Amino acid sequence: DLVVVSPLTRALQTMELALYEHIIVNEDDDDDDVDGHSNVPIIAMPKAAERLYLVSDIGKSRSELRIKYPWVDFDTGFSSDNNYIEWRPHGQGQEYACLGEPQECFDHRMTELYLWLESRKEKCIAVICHAGVIDWMTSGDVYSNCELRIQTFKS
Questions:
Q1: Where are the alpha helices (DSSP H) in the chain?
Q2: Whole domain around residue 88: which residue ranges?
Q3: Domains contained in the chain, number
Q4: Which of 44, 126, 129, 144 has the most CB atoms lying inside 10 A of its own CB?
């Protein structure tokens, strides 16, 4: 009924490899996939992104992603808020390649994701995300890379 995917490229690529042929409809025969659309809503959800540890967890701009994944909604769930406060040691010349995410911020984001999923009317939601998100949402279940499982949602 709904696909929710982290906006990080590795999750979008996983979604494309696993679900594209099942949910994308191409109405022409030129095989360019650009005109494809989905009868199932696909929402790129920043709350489903991995906990921010590394530069690779930052991701690309929405405008860049829209070109490659035109059938994904890159508007729902995004905001322009930037209230970041550095939480790691700083002030003595330390430099970080990217912003980090304190545990309490990650917990808050995961709670928001959980509540957002819980509020949805769809009965079946595919969530394509990352190990840290899965660990938090399932209280520690370990998944292999690209593993698919049916998870009962408990409110």
A1: 9-23, 62-68, 103-119, 131-138
A2: 2-138
A3: 1
A4: 44
